[in-house]
Design brief:
alpha+beta, two-stranded antiparallel sheet, 3 helices, 4 strands, 18% strand
Length: 80
């Protein structure tokens, strides 16, 4: 959330994103209760691309500084 807050100033949007992250998750063996998982985002969650782009933005800049061409959308990437 710290990296997200660096990009998004609206407290209502931050609260909405945090609520997405604290939702329970359905698994084959049952439901994980909200708050039991301390890291990551639910696979396929609607905010996963946004969060991946915020989190991996420094990687984009590092690869560019090192002279590597890279194409990335969310957490999918091709290094050229």
């Amino acid at each position: 959330m710290g990296l997200v807050a660096e990009r998004i100033a609206d407290g209502r949007v931050l609260a909405l994103i945090e609520s997405f992250l604290k939702q329970g998750i359905m698994e084959a063996m049952g439901e994980i209760e909200p708050g039991e998982s301390e890291e990551g985002t639910p696979q396929g969650g609607v905010i996963s691309p946004l969060l991946a782009n915020i989190y991996l933005n420094p990687l984009d800049h590092l690869m560019s500084r090192k002279g590597h061409a890279m194409v990335r959308y969310a957490d999918d990437m091709v290094i050229l």
